[in-house]
Amino acid sequence: MNRSVYNLLLRSFDSPRSRGERRKLEASLNESEELRSSKQELTALRRTLELSRESSFAPFFVERVLARLHKREESVDEYFVSVFRTLATGAAVLVILLSVYNISRLNALSIESAFGISHPSLEQVLMLEAPFE
């Protein structure tokens, strides 16, 4: 089978043809049994696809797919916000627990005891070397 005639057959299903192309295709179909069987197979395949198209795609298919894509873009933003909230909550709980532990260990209610900050004694300060000597 000639490739150009087969391509002409394929285009004949979807696009209009000129008179010369129609004559060439008709003559080729009359001459070639293989081309006629190819046309029958293609026609049956197209019919099957047309029937399955209605059952597989409900109305507003394109709109639903686009809405799902937009929703996915929004969900990425929401995901990062939810991760940040979770981490911030966990960090706040950890700070509170450590503060309660430090306060209970030192038996003093102050910011220094809550965060485990200790003031150096005068002896500790005097033992440090002066950085500018």
Structure description:
The protein has 133 residues and is mostly helical. The chain has 2 domains: 3-56; 62-114. It is 77% helix and 0% strand. Helix 1 packs across helix 2 (19-31).
Overview features:
133 residues; mainly alpha; rod-shaped
Poorly predicted runs of 5 or more residues: none
- β-sheet strand percentage: under 5%
Number of strands: 0
Q: Mean pLDDT, as a whole number?
A: 81
Backbone structural class: mainly alpha
Helix content: over 70%
User: Largest sheet at a glance?
Assistant: none
Rounded to an integer in angstroms, the radius of gyration calculated over CA atoms is 40 Å
Overall geometry: rod-shaped
Q: Distance N terminus to C terminus?
A: 100 Å
Number of domains: 2
Number of helices: 6
Quick structural summary:
It contains six helices and no strands. The protein has helices at 3-12, 19-31, 33-56, 61-106, 111-114, 122-127. The model has no long low-confidence stretch (mean pLDDT 81).
